[in-house]
Amino acid sequence: LNPMLHTGPAGMMFNPSFPMGLAALEHAALLQAQISAYRNDFILMFWASFPAAVAAYQASHQLGMPECNVILAQCVAYLARAPKSNALYVAYGRVQRDIQDLPAEPVPIHLRNAPTRLMKDLGYGAEYKYTPDFEHREEAAQDYLPERLRGKAYLE
Question: What is the rounded average pLDDT of the residues 25-37?
């Protein structure tokens, strides 16, 4: 987790210098940027938390200091209490290892574009299933990964 944050009462994450730092800021830009960039990769509910951070950034930009202090404090508390996980880092590491360690695999033939007659004759794009054409998504199931990577889970 972010080394600038510490566990406080009831397990809430907080930065003990937050009130002093907030009072010392002439302009909220630094805190706004920190909130917007706050380890959203660790926050499980990214799509719920990131808009809150952006909204706090925009509101504080429009209001200015010191009126935006409460908005920024609310956002910091919200992000600090959000469930955390490093699952994205672990998954990203797995993907990077496979990219580095495995040879470049060919794109499955049914996914290849066939702009020429030769490519069509070679089977490019054959048997491709366009999902919107199917009433049930399961009917359009097909493999999108090269054979060596099929069934491999990166994000758990």
Answer: 53
